[in-house]
Each structure stands twice: as C-alpha cells, then as structure tokens.
Amino acid sequence: MGTEERKVSLYDMLPVMDKERATKFLIYGLLVAIIFGTILMISKSIADNASIWLSLENQQNEMNYMQGLYGYNDYIVKIERALLIRYWMEYQVIIVGNIARIGVNVGLFFIVVGFLSFALNDKFDEKSRRIYLILAGAILFVIMVTTFFSQIAIFVS
Amino acid sequence: MVKMSRLLKKKTAYIIIGISIACLILGPVMGLLLDKVTIYDMDSELILEDSSSGLTKAFAKPVTLSKDQKLIVEISEFYANTSITIKIIAKSVYDRAFSLNSTPSGISGLNFVYSEFGWGASPAGSTNGATALSLPSSGMYFYIEFMGDRTGDSLISWPGDYFVIVYGTNSGPASVRDVYFDISIKVDGPGETLNNLLIFVGALILVAYAMLALVSILKANYLRG
Predict the structure, then answer these.
(1) pTM beyond cutoff 0.80
(2) ipTM of the complex
(3) pLDDT tens column, B107-127
(4) Of B52, B142, B181, B189, which residue is most buried, by most CB within 10 angstroms?
(5) 8 A C-beta contact, residue B220 and residue B4
(6) d(CA A44, CA A93)
C-alpha cells in the first residue's frame, strides 16, 4: 500500500475562526487601536503645548499677585509648582506613550488575527483571501517594525 | 451581542465613575476652601493706648506654625488719630515680656516680608522685609507673610509658637484712649494637599476603571469560547 502525499496549503496552517467572530476581532481591534492612538495624540499635544501653558500660568500668577490675592512667597511657590507641572506635562508622554504603544499593538494584533481568519475562511473567494492575507502580513510588519524601531521613515535626498 | 461583565453593569459604572468625578470636582473646591485657615478676623479691633507702655494691654494672638507653614497677617488702619505698630515675636519672648509687662517698643520682632501690590511692578520689587511695621506712617495696609525668618524677600521656615502683637497710641484728646485697627490672621491650610490627593485618586479610579472595563470586554467576548 503506497503512502498518499497530501499537499498542505498555507491557509490550513492558520487558526480557524468563523466569519462573525473574525469580524468582531477586526472591529474591536480597530476600536482598541483608535482609543489608544487618540490617547497618545492627546498626550503628545499636552507635552507639545506645555510651555504655552506655563506662560499663561505665569501671567495669571503675576496678575493675581498684583490684585493682592496672595503675597510674594505664595507667588514664588506657585511659579515653582507651575514649573513642576510643566515638566510633568512634558514627561507624561513617555509613560502614557509607552502604555498607548502597547495598546495600539494589541489592537493591531487583533486586526491581524481577524484578517488571517478571513484569509482562512473558504467562504471567501481565492482572490479576496489573498488580499486579506497580504493585509494581515502588512499590519504584522508594521507591528514588528514599530516594536523594534521608534518609527518608519523614508528619506529622499 | 457583546457580553457584559459585572464590572460593566450600569449601576456599578455609575457608582465608580460618580466617585471619580466627585473626587475630581471636590479636589479643586476643597483646595480653594482650605488653602488658608483663618485664625482671627476682626474689623475695628479695639486696644487702649496703654498698650504702648505695657505688653499686657497690647493685642496678642498666639499662632503655632509647623514646618513650611506660613502665617499671613493683613492689617490696616484707617481710624482717626490712631497709630499702631505690629510685630511678630517668639512665644518665649512674649511670655517673658508679658510677665514683666515690658514696653512693646523695646521688644525685637522677628523678620517677615510684606507686599505692596503694584500693577505692572515686578513682584520681587514690590516686596520688602521688616521686623516691625507702623501704620499709618509706613502705609495704610500691609499684607505680611511670616514663617520664622527670612533671607532677602524669601521666607525661612522655623516651626514653632509665635505671637502676633499690636500696640498703638491715640494722638487725639487726652480723654480718648481708644486705638482701632482691622486685622486678619491666617495660616496655610491643608487645601493644596487635599487638592492634589483628590485629583490623583479621581484620575486613578477613572483610568483603572477604563482599563479594567476594556480587559473585561475583551475577556468576556474573546477569551471565553
């Protein structure tokens, strides 16, 4: 009795997931990525505008002093505190940014799994499945690159 | 349909988010209310002109300062024929002078700074140091800050017990011996600590809840069958 050689396709190696569940992965992955991405952008905006906030705070502080709301030593303390807050506004992007990066990557991972499941689903035609696989690969590539490097940049000189 | 965990139930969410928002609102409100604690506030405080010859007749208010705590005295004098002098002295000095009924003008006051708020003037340029202030000869109103000692226009914290003393004279008819002035004595309160604490707790609850809710949605929908 001869052995039957069975050809294993690439799709068979991917995790099996029904269409509905894969769509859920895609939507929630997108949602998580958008939420964390927005948090990152807000955090960056706070850090970028810290010096403007400090100028506003200093002017308000000086005018409060001139109105006699508090004395000189309260005025000095408020300047020092405003400086501390300004440094925190600049530093928080490091903490929030790294947490958000993890969140975005988790979201992207969910999207990759969703696309991979579409690619695996034999209810889609061959062409669509190939596109889904390419999309999954592209997103996975982005995850890998952003994990090991801070950004992707193309320089033209 | 998205499965819900107990953490995401409407009632639980309302309670947790409610507590967090309450903390975030209460923080600045408490901070503002308790920024300064008033020890004594009196318009038309009355002393007699005997106060300038013996400390027992002078106005005296005890104040205890802890580390980094500041004493603020706002004093003004707008009454006819009266002139007053304010000093801040250590409790030990006061006790001795009180028992001897010493002349207040002979007692050395401790260093404080006072502000004369000027529009457009640099705050550093409109602040001075002194050990005693006389009203109205030096000015009609003063905002005094005191912590024990000073270096330049900045204060040095010497925690301990102090007395704010005020004595004065009446230059009117001999029969009129009343000396009036307005005074408000405050110390730094726990406002700022409470403000920072409540805002931190409120933000922490909100962030922790958002994270737990997210994990709980993912867990309920994907990690269990």
Answers:
(1) no
(2) 0.78
(3) 999 999 999 888 888 888 888
(4) B181
(5) yes
(6) 6
